[in-house]
Design brief:
It contains 4 helices and no strands. By secondary structure, it is an all-alpha fold. The longest helix is centred in the middle third of the chain and has 32 residues. Bound molecules: protoporphyrin IX containing FE (2 copies).
């Protein structure tokens, strides 16, 4: 079970990177690179379902980790931040909040990078 939890954790990381990449592909050296154009199109098209799938798999990982291994505060913080990101995304999609909230959505999704790093290298640093 430990291995299953680990694989699921890494799957969440990959899916998360695909969700967040649409920002990174828009800035810096990638901005003008023709090679990344098709990838960008794909990521923008599937951004919303991808984000939701990421959260669902994170929930499965968290649930299995919680019941079979141990609770993890860093993991919980990562998950809660991801939940806020997805809720913001959904609210923007249904126009319940303005699109300018994408700044919060983006900031929190970058914060997840820090939290995932902490969770992977020091899973029990706070607890
Ligand atoms: C979005 C949220 C999350 C992501 C991206 C994530 C990612 C990961 C990854 C990649 C690993 C494997 C680390 C390794 O190879 O050693 C892992 C392990 C683990 N995760 Fe998560 N995780 C998340 C949420 C959670 C939550 C909410 C919990 C709390 C119950 C949790 C509990 C654990 C535990 C107990 C391990 C095993 C740690 C160990 O003993 O090495 N994770 N997670
Ligand atoms: C793990 C989950 C997610 C991450 C990491 C994430 C990340 C991002 C990032 C970084 C941007 C900014 C792109 C830019 O500045 O060019 C963005 C934009 C956006 N995201 Fe997400 N997102 C996630 C899930 C979702 C979900 C589930 C929805 C809606 C159902 C959503 C809706 C949006 C919308 C509406 C925008 C901006 C407007 C647009 O161009 O479509 N996101 N997201």
């Amino acid at each position: 079970m430990y291995q299953v939890v680990r694989y699921l954790g890494w799957l969440v990381v990959v899916l998360y990177l695909l969700s967040v990449d649409r920002y990174f592909l828009r800035i810096g050296p990638f901005k003008k690179m023709d090679a990344v154009k098709p990838l960008k199109g794909f990521l923008v098209k599937f951004h919303k379902p991808l984000g939701i799938v990421t959260l669902v798999i994170a929930l499965v990982h968290a649930n299995l980790a919680f019941t079979n291994i141990s609770p993890s505060l860093t993991g919980t913080l990562t998950f809660l931040t991801m939940l806020i990101v997805v809720v913001f995304g959904i609210l923007m999609h249904f126009k319940k909040i303005e699109l300018k909230n994408v700044k919060t959505h983006r900031f929190m999704s970058i914060l997840i990078v820090v939290l995932i790093t902490l969770h992977v290298f020091l899973p029990y640093v706070f607890l």
